[in-house]
Structure formats: C-alpha cells, structure tokens
Task: inverse folding
C-alpha cells in the first residue's frame, strides 16, 4: 500500500512542477522582473535565470512522474529547488510584505508569498517522506548505460530548450520593434482643459515617458511592473501613467500586482484616452516637450536607453 501511495505522491509532485513551469511561461515577464526588482539579477541575466528555473521544473516534473533516479538524484534535486524557492519567498516576505502575486503559478493562479511558502513546506514534507520510504522503480531498458545516458540527455535537452523556444528572451526578439518612429505632436490639450482635474505635471514641457494603460489589461500590468522596477532603481526617470478603469475596484489590485503605486499617475476615463492611445495598450510615448520622439512596447523598453536619453541634449 505504501508503495502505491508513494508512486501517487511522486507523480503529484511532478504534475505540480510541470503545471507551475508551464503557467510561468505565458507571460514570463513578471517572473523575470521579480529577480531584477529584488536585486538578484539584471535585465539581461533575469530572462535566462527565469527560463532555466522553469526548465528545472520541467526536468524534475518528468523525472518524478516517470519515477526515474529518485533516491540518487531526483528527490534531492527537488528538495534543493523547493528550498531555493522558499528562501526566495522568505526574502520577499521580509522585503516586500505578504502582498501581490508571488508568481509561482504565473498570472493564472495568484498566490501571496505566504500562501506559496506554505505550499512549498507541504511539498518539502512529501519529498522528505519519499526520501525515507520510497524505492526506485527499475526499468529494464535503463540498465543499459547508453540508453540511460540517452534518456537523461533527452530529458535535459528538451526541458531546457522548451521555455526558450516557447517564449524567447526580450533581448532576442526586441529588435523587430521600431524604436524610432516618425516624430509627431501628441495633443494633450484636452487633458489640461479642466483646471481642477488634470495632472500635477505638465507633460507638454520637458522630457517624459507617458504610458496609457487599462487597469484590467494584462500587458499593461507587465509594462507597469517593468517600469516600477526601473523607477525604484532610477527615481529620476520621469515616468507618468494614465490609467483607465474603475479605480475603486481595480486600482489597488493593479498596484498590488505591479508595485507601481510610486509612479506618478492620472486616472483618465474619457473618450480622449482611446484617441491618445491609438486603441493599442499599453501605449508608451517618449515625449520631448509635446512631441513623441519615440514609442515603445514593454518588450523593448530599456532602462539604459532611457537614462542616456534623459542626459542627452
């Protein structure tokens, strides 16, 4: 009976890892940006680290489901990965508090850091039980060294390649976006018509990066998250966000998820919002006085380029 329970528990752990890894891939950016936000990676290493961690979840998920190398490698590696994730969550709890989505299951199943930490502790308990009581399943074909090595190589190659193929890093695909579109004046006159309800900052003077976002738009949340990380590292960046949506219902959850509350913003629930954004969200404009000198997506929004632009004449 214990043997069948252990097989079930091992397969359950494997399924959780596979689901967790897959749900992180789309979108993967919040998972990446967390490493930059917490200071454990930069904009170039975070995409690689995120995908390698997802790959490790795929590798362990497959090995756990197939009951391969459990005592020799799989359970010990699983324990090490869960310990790493738990230490990361403890660090996040102490530095950020128990708010927002930890990203353990992507954006599809939101969990606070404490909820995810409790989940990890339960999984660690299962792994410890399996280390004490479980016995390896002997597959006849795995007794052949060449077949065993081939199977290991296949598992690792497919698992590592999958997240990079399904969602390539930003620095690989961002060159397809036009970073220098034709200059034109962004008409912000209606924004400032109402003297009692208008932004505190005059976006028609000086350099600003203006973003138009919907509070319910998932891509807008990713963009706001990335901007929040940049703003925390460089408070001199003149970000300004226009939000559209029911603020009493969606604004605080938006801030909880993106950590963007510190970025200056203005709620702009008018028809002019659609005209300014061009119907595509998020709309990110680099403004010099009242002129759009460049537009960005959240993919090609680059911290170094912004800082260099601000210091240029």
Result:
């Amino acid at each position: 009976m214990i043997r069948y329970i252990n097989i079930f528990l091992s397969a359950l752990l494997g399924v959780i890892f596979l689901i967790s890894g897959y749900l992180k891939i789309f979108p993967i950016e919040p998972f990446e940006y967390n490493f930059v936000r917490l200071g454990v990676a930069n904009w170039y290493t975070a995409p690689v680290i995120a995908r390698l961690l997802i790959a490790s979840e795929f590798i362990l998920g497959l090995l756990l489901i197939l009951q391969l190398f459990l005592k020799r490698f799989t359970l010990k590696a699983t324990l090490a990965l869960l310990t790493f994730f738990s230490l990361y969550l403890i660090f996040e709890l102490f530095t950020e508090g128990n708010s927002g989505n930890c990203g353990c299951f992507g954006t599809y199943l939101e969990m606070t850091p404490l909820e995810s930490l409790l989940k990890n502790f339960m999984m660690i308990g299962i792994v410890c039980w399996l280390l004490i009581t479980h016995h390896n399943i002997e597959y006849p074909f795995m007794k052949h060294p060449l077949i065993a090595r081939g199977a290991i190589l296949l598992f690792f190659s497919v698992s590592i390649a999958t997240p990079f193929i399904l969602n390539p890093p930003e620095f690989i695909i961002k060159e397809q976006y036009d970073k220098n579109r034709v200059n034109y004046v962004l008409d912000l006159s209606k924004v400032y018509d109402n003297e009692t309800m208008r932004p505190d900052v005059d976006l028609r003077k000086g350099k600003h990066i203006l973003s138009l976002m919907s509070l319910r738009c998932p891509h807008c949340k990713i963009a706001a998250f990335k901007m929040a990380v940049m703003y925390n590292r460089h408070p001199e960046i003149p970000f300004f966000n226009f939000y559209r949506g029911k603020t009493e219902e969606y604004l605080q959850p938006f801030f909880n998820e993106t950590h963007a509350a510190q970025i200056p913003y203005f709620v702009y629930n008018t028809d002019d919002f659609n005209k300014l954004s061009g119907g595509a969200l998020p709309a990110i404009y680099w403004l010099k006085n009242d002129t759009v000198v460049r537009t960005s997506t959240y993919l090609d929004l680059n911290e170094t380029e912004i800082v260099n632009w601000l210091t240029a004449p």
Notes: Strands lie at 184-185, 207-214, 239-244, 265-267, 283-288, 291-296. Confidence is low (pLDDT under 50) at residues 175-180.
